[in-house]
Amino acid sequence: MAFVWAFLAGGALCVLAQLVVDLTPLTPAHTMVLFVVLGAVAAGLGLYDPLLKAAGAGASVPLTGFGNVLVQGIFKDIGRYGVQGLMTGGLTASAAGITMAVVFAAIAALAFRPKG
Amino acid sequence: MRADPTQQAAYGRLLKKHTPAVPVVRNALMAFIVGGSICAVGQIFMNLFMRHGLSPERAGTLTAVTVVFIGAVLTALGLYDEIVRVAGMGGSLPISGFSNAVVSPAMEFRREGWVLGVGARIFGIAGPVITFGLLTSMLVGAVYVLFRLPLPK
């Protein structure tokens, strides 16, 4: 059943983002930024954790989940280091995704030619 | 020289007539199906990692990396741009779209060199995402610190 909720919640977030692109002047790049910001704000308001529990990857895979990870990382490091956690938490929690995207990008640039 | 208002209005009408209408419902449907499917695939890996005894946090991180990997492979094969073309934000909003935004310019700008091509361009879209994500999350954290709010969990 987890798949169904992941599909529905993830799909719904993508529909919202698509509507922003189609019905406002915002470009896809703007919309990606907007959803990370929205995810971080929702996490700050304590709204994202319930969504994660209900929808799993449907909430963690869209970019709102990236915003949530940044905030959860900061919360964790505030707990450990106090104010210094503000400076370390975000990138610490999101390190794996960003690092591996860069690694895969370097491999792709080495081994593949762009099409067209 | 400025066009007079009636000319401008006429031009506006002409422009509107010849601009294809955005198929909002169709775009939304494709975004839903494709974006939802990517998340469902993510859930398969999430379950797999948790069944192997990883905490939800670690499983979530590995799921993110896995979806980033899938996005990178499909981008390298030239398939992810097609997915984005068909599904719009259904392809771009999942982190596989973030991965696509990093990998695609890496391949495209290699011809401009590793440093000023690949190195400089891979964060063209991912950079703003990371920048405003970091700024927003720090602001959220600062509010918690300033007002001594109890931290969740």
Give a written overview of the molecule:
The complex is a heterodimer of chains A (116) and B (153). Chain A is mostly helical and 116 residues long. Chain A contains 6 helices and no strands. Chain A has helices at 2-23, 28-44, 48-55, 57-60, 63-81, 85-111. In chain A, helix 1 (2-23) packs across helix 2 (28-44). The longest helix of chain A is centred in the C-terminal third of the chain and has 27 residues, at 85-111. In chain A, 54% of the residues are buried. Chain B is extended and about 70 Å long. The mean pLDDT of chain B is 95. Chain B has helices spanning 5-18, 24-51, 56-76, 80-87, 89-92, 95-108, 114-121, 123-146. With 153 residues, chain B is an all-alpha fold. At the A-B interface, helix 1, helix 2, helix 4, helix 5 and helix 6 of A face helix 2, helix 3, helix 5, helix 6 and helix 8 of B.
Quick overview of this protein structure:
With 116 residues, chain A is mainly alpha-helical. Chain A is 84% helix and 0% strand.
**Main beta-sheet strand count, sense and barrel state of chain B:** none
**Poorly predicted tracts of residues of chain B:** none
Distance between the termini of chain B: 64 Å
What structural category arises from helix and sheet content of chain B? mainly alpha
| Integer-rounded radius of gyration of chain B | 21 Å
Task: Give the biggest sheet of chain A.
Answer: none
Q: How are helices and strands ordered from N to C of chain B?
A: HHHHHHHH
Tally of helical runs of chain A: 6
Proportion of residues in helical segments of chain B? over 70%
Residues in β-strands, percent of chain B = under 5%
Q: Radius of gyration of chain A, rounded? A: 16 Å
Shape of chain B: extended
Number of helices of chain B: 8
Secondary structure category of chain A: mainly alpha
What is the averaged pLDDT score of chain B?
Answer: 95
Largest interface: A-B, 80 and 79 residues
